[in-house]
Amino acid sequence: MMESQCNPYQDQRRVLLDGMTMDASFYTDDFAQASEYLRLALALLSKHQIPPSPFNFRLGYDAVAGNNETLKTALEEAIERPGGASSENLWDLYRQNFIQDDKTLDAMRQELRRIITSVQGQFEHSGNSLSRYTDTLNHFSEFLDSPTPPEAMTTEVDKVIQETRSTEQLQRQMETQLSSIVAEVTSLRNELEQVRQESLTDALTGISNRKAFDVTLEKTVHQAREQKAPFSMLLADIDHFKQFNDTHGHLVGDKVLRFVATTLKRCLKGKDLVARFGGEEFAVILPQTDLKGAEAVAEQIRQSVSAGSLKDKTNKKSYGRVTISVGMAQFAEDDLPNALVSRADQALYLAKERGRDRIERVA
How far is 338 from 346, CA to CA, in rounded Å? Predict the structure, then answer.
């Protein structure tokens, strides 16, 4: 516990989600079914002491619901192996079954090609129909310029009425189909955004990952040069983290990582970004912030982590005090991203060398 209608675009609709092509009915469990699967998934995670994070919960839910036999088998095998249910292994399992960025993008490309081909076919059909309608009207116009008996006039008028009705019906069908296409493309865009977000998120802590940090740092450096504005970064490391793992096990170590990540996120605001840099290291980007402002943020983070308390849920026993060391660096106009990270890393090394649970900077 931590204190602190029918048409060719909707028939057999396919949803491209999380790297797999699935029927739209993939998640059609009613309330009772979903509730039971929820209970079973949580029981499975609890039995094997797997943290019920959103990523781990989805693994458990799909396994107990029988949505993915390959996933179910792989999860069972991972649980049976010593250390197989580690956060890293579970994240790999999640990526293999749900993200698979390249496969997802390729599937989306295929789906968009299908939509475009269908649209092209419909417009070609529509164009042919409109061409026939134009020919009918031209013929009728020429017919009116010549003396015509009433019977022949009636026949020609009926032809024009019939063609007009057919063309009107075709246009209504096109409007319906185009509306469906807009909805389908919008759905694909939303699914692509979900994949993008997941690829930028650390599975264990829920904060940004190293990839997101690298992308944001490049963007922040570019903006700082354009606007001639300051920004700083922090590099933080959990003190004696190996000791938590060795003494209490990796599950407790995971709790420590989540606690620190949550604390860091709570201490930031606006466009600030916190990311898991690697292992027990975290990186923070502070736009529009000079070194003095960065130091104030770093001190708030350090104190908040130190003041937190991690306890065993069963016996309420404390796992001990958690502290962090922080290195700071401010962006210089000629800095490359790696140079800024390097200076922050040097400052972090100094903080460790000078006793830990402290903040340091380098010129």
Answer: 12
